[in-house]
Amino acid sequence: MKKKATLQLKAHVKIGEKVIIISGREKGKIGLVKKILRQKNRLIIEGINMGVKHIKPTRPGQNGEIKRIEFPIHSSNVSLYQE
Hints:
Blueprint: E1 18-21, E2 30-37, E3 42-45, E4 50-55, E5 65-70, E6 73-74, E7 78-80
Antiparallel strand pairs: 1-2, 1-7, 2-3, 3-6, 4-5
Domain KOW: 12-39
Organism: Petalonia binghamiae
Protein name: Large ribosomal subunit protein uL24c
């Protein structure tokens, strides 16, 4: 059985930098980089690519919830923002 090689790519932006989205449905929006997922070459950007996550209750008597969180976006879809 062959093992898949995991290629860790170096991101062209750093955590805390301002980026602009250059493609996709969020095109033209600006946000700060919160987290870098190196193995998948993706970024989590503050306030961009918001999605809904349904969370089931884990214990009896506890309520489930619906959270809005930022989902990752591919690093090739962002560019460093110059003011």
